[in-house]
Amino acid sequence: MTRGYAVRLAAVALAAALAATACSGGDEAPTPPAPVAGGAAALPGPAPAGLALRPAPSGAPGAPAVTGALTDGSPVALAELWADRPVVLVFFTSWCTLCADRQAALGELARRHSDEVVLVGVATEDKPDDVQRYLREHRVEYPVVLDADGAIWRSYAVREPPAVVVIAKGGALLRGWPGGVDAATLDTELARLVLAG
Question: For the whole model, what pTM was predicted?
Answer without folding.
Answer: 0.82
